[in-house]
Amino acid sequence: MSAAPSAAYSSASPAASAFDRVATSYDELFTRTAIGRAQRRQVWSRLLAGFHRGDRILELNCGTGEDARFLAQHGVSVLACDASAAMIDVAASYSVVAEPAGFIEYRQLANEKLFRLSPRIPFDGAFSNFSGLNCVADLQPVARNLAALVRPGARVLICLWSRVCLAEVLWFVVRGEAKKAFRRFPGRATARLGDSSISVSYPTIASVRRAFAPWFRLETRRAIGLFVPPSYAEPWVRENTSKLAWLEKLDRAFSAWPGLRDAGDHVLLEFVRCPR
Length: 276
Hints:
Layout: E1 2-3, H1 14-22, H2 26-31, H3 34-50, E2 56-60, H4 66-72, E3 77-82, H5 85-93, E4 104-108, E5 123-128, H6 139-147, E6 150-161, H7 166-174, H8 178-181, E7 188-193, E8 196-201, H9 205-212, E9 216-224, H10 234-239, H11 241-254, E10 266-273
Parallel strand pairs: 1-4, 2-3, 2-5, 3-4, 5-6
Antiparallel strand pairs: 6-10, 7-8, 9-10
Helix pairs in contact: 3-11, 6-9
């Protein structure tokens, strides 16, 4: 595994700077929490269905590299990119222990700078997990640049915060906090990340589909965290650990149902690269 020098690109954007500040604590804040593991397991099952041993995959918003290491342990090679220099440093500090393993290269690269990549051999697929693309104001240039990097027929999996989160609405309505219950509905909001605030968007499925056309066809979508609640419910989950397993079972059973598949904490969109 290798990492490009941290000084290769500037991480001056507000989102990148915010993630720089939480990089060393991010795994404790989310990755290793019960909710973080539960939601990630749902995504991992789809990654293994879409990517296979020997594939070479591009990852956007790799964070601390948890997903890249998981794929590498299954023989998939990953170029893992993130706008945050500190996140890349943390990711590169880990090692892959499973053998046989794929190769991981870490690179500091913002989503808006994908045009800087020009591989001689197209990637076999790409993915972005957990909301990194919610920090991008315009998804169409990202989709266009991504289309130039993956082969025809390649799968691209995009996990985004949903516009409507049923668990969030219920969580805050029960607590009498109606403003928070419906905060995603306008499509833009300010999210807290450690001690920082970042501007995020909650795009509709239709707008994401339009942004990725005509290069990609949306094949399937499913909720991630339909019954498993958002990460701020972690204190409740710690006190109700036995209930989390049941919530995960409900997610597996109903996450792809029409009417429910767009109502999770996140939505996982699975695109296929159209013929050139």
